[in-house]
Design a protein that fits this description.
The protein has nine helices and no strands. It folds into two domains: 99 residues, RNA polymerase sigma factor, region 2, helix turn helix motif (Rna Polymerase Sigma Factor, Chain: A), CATH 1.10.1740.10; 69 residues, Orthogonal Bundle (Arc Repressor Mutant, subunit A), CATH 1.10.10. Helices cover 71% and strands 0% of the residues. With 176 residues, it is mainly α. Helix 1 crosses helix 2.
Length: 176
Amino acid sequence: MENGTERHLVNACLDGDKSAYAQLVKRNSKQVFAVCLGILGDVHDAEDLSQEALIKGFTQMDQLRDAGQFGSWLISIARNLCIDQIRRRKRGSEVLALQSIGQDGHSGDYTDLHEAIFKLLEKYRLPLVLYYFDGQSSTSVARALKISPAGVLTRLSRARRELRELLGSGEVTDES
């Protein structure tokens, strides 16, 4: 079972095998967390919504059209949950404040970089986080985000260029 394909695991889960879902969670949880962190910019919120996405994936698995696309489907659930949370915050007139890594108790050496990353548009931030911080291949990122591998490389290039501009101009600390 541990070496089974994603399709096999999904089918086993639909047949009532709960250990199959545990394997699916093991295979996809890091990527789900990386997407949530890339969108929200807050570790705690990302952890909460990652768990919510994993639970929702389990409870709504019967809605999955292609068992071989479970990972992409789960990423879509996570992305939608994150976007919904951001919308709720905006509707509630709360200001979305991105916390720096230094405030979370992590090393402050990269605070400017993290602030700059969270200033990027989501379409650039997500591939960047998945590729560099989660260690995914461009093909894997493309599959998760439902874009072409060439599109991933283009977005990575633009993200790096924008990061250089943000870090070089001092914009990161001016607005923080």
